[in-house]
């Protein structure tokens, strides 16, 4: 329970699907399918990277971290959503709400930093190929991965600490499908100015700074790709980066829409859609966008399944 002058609130009620009187069974099956695909897809990626020595490169090292992160991302929110579909009253206890918010924001901040690190990895591979092994050695990539996780944890700890000091005055209905900072600020009856300023500052520092690093990296990458004379080489370099660009646009776009607005500007339908896209759908799509379109991952998958023959040979020729 929070300290200070906060009125005692034992639980919160989610209103995210309150406008849907029927079809909860169908939505349960949809979210369950998304969750299972997310877990299976990302776990498969991590397993293949660990088992196949050809995937023991810096790019796949960071991809394995992204896959682990996506499993955590989805597991923080979806199981509780599924449980609420089966209950007549979609609720969450105060302590569980604070914990869910902490882990959710940890994943958000970590992914922001990790996407920036992955952009730098692609910059080093394409723009500095002769120095790539040195720039992305284990002495460099391991601290970068650790820093990405710490980046998210510190940011989340600040927001969680500020949120636990808010007063809710008995208001416990959240216009959302899980606990997040913006909808909690909306129902708080104490002054949320510091919380909103912290949210905007974090959006600029934790969200915008990694995004700018991604943009700068890809400006150099695009310049290097355009200088490649071979059409085949140019296409191969572009394909290597295009998947990352798609994920970056989706993630940072949705993150900015979610966190960089005043609490008065939130609506139930829009927030549910945005949060579903970047917290639930994106972790499911990342394995498809990043890895299963990748030749090396396909070869590792067919090898693991014992189907190397014709399929394996055709992939090597691509």
**CATH fold type:** Rhopdopsin 7-helix transmembrane proteins
Number of domains: 1
| C-alpha Rg (nearest Å) | 21 Å
Strand content: under 5%
Seen as an oligomer or otherwise, the chain set is: single chain
Helix content: over 70%
Uncertain runs with pLDDT below 50, 5 residues or more?
1-6
Order of helices and strands: EHHEHHHEHHHHHH
Let me know the average pLDDT: 83
At the fourth level of CATH, the homologous superfamily is Rhodopsin 7-helix transmembrane proteins
Number of helices: 11
By CATH reckoning, the class would read Mainly Alpha
Strand order of the largest sheet: 2-1-3
Number of strands: 3
Please outline the major beta sheet: 3 strands, mixed
Instruction: Calculate the terminal CA-CA distance, rounded to whole Å.
Output: 58 Å
Shape: globular
Provide the CATH architecture.
Up-down Bundle
Main structural class:
mainly alpha
List the helices and strands and how they pair.
Elements (H helix, E strand, L loop, with lengths): L10 E4 L9 H28 L6 H28 L5 E3 H34 L4 H4 L2 H27 L8 E2 L6 H7 L5 H34 L4 H29 L8 H24 L3 H10 L4 H9 L1
Parallel strand pairs: 1-3
Antiparallel strand pairs: 1-2
What does this structure look like?
It is a single chain. The protein has 318 residues and is mainly alpha-helical. The chain has one domain (11-286): Rhodopsin 7-helix transmembrane proteins (Rhopdopsin 7-helix transmembrane proteins). Helices cover 74% and strands 3% of the residues. The chain has helices spanning 24-51, 58-85, 94-127, 132-135, 138-164, 181-187, 193-226, 231-259, 268-291, 295-304, 309-317; strands at 11-14, 91-93, 173-174. It has a 3-stranded mixed beta sheet. Helix 1 (24-51) runs antiparallel to helix 2, helix 2 (58-85) runs antiparallel to helix 3 and helix 10 (295-304) runs antiparallel to helix 11 (309-317). It is globular, with a radius of gyration of 21 Å. The chain starts with 10 loop residues before the first strand and ends with a helix. Mean pLDDT is 83; it is low at 1-6.
């Amino acid at each position: 329970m929070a300290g200070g002058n906060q009125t005692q609130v034992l639980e919160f009620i989610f209103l995210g699907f309150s406008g849907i009187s029927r079809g909860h069974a169908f939505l349960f099956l949809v979210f369950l399918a998304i969750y299972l695909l997310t877990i299976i897809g990302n776990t498969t990626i991590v397993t293949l990277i660990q088992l196949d020595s050809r995937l023991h490169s810096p790019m796949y090292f960071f991809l394995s971290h992204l896959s682990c992160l996506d499993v955590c991302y989805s597991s923080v929110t979806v199981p509780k959503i599924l449980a609420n579909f089966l209950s007549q009253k979609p609720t969450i206890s105060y302590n569980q709400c604070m914990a869910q918010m902490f882990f959710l924001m940890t994943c958000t901040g970590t992914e922001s930093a990790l996407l920036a690190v992955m952009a730098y990895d692609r910059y080093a591979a394409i723009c500095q190929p002769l120095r790539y092994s040195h720039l992305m050695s284990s002495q460099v990539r391991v601290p970068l991965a650790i820093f990405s996780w710490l980046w998210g944890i510190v940011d989340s700890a600040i927001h969680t600490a500020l949120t636990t000091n808010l007063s809710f005055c008995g208001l416990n209905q959240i216009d959302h499908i899980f606990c997040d900072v913006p909808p909690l600020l909306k129902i708080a009856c104490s002054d949320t100015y510091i919380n909103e300023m912290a949210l905007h500052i974090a959006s600029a520092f934790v969200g915008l700074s990694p995004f700018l690093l991604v943009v700068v990296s890809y400006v150099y990458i695009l310049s290097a790709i355009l200088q490649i004379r071979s059409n085949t080489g140019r296409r191969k370099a572009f394909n290597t980066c295009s998947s990352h660009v798609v994920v970056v646009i989706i993630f940072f776009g949705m993150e900015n829409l979610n966190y960089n607005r005043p609490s008065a500007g939130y609506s139930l339908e829009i927030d549910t859609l945005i949060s579903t896209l970047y917290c639930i759908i994106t972790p499911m799509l990342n394995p498809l966008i990043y890895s299963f379109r990748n030749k090396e991952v396909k070869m590792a998958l067919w090898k693991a399944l014992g189907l190397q023959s014709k399929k394996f040979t055709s992939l090597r020729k691509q």
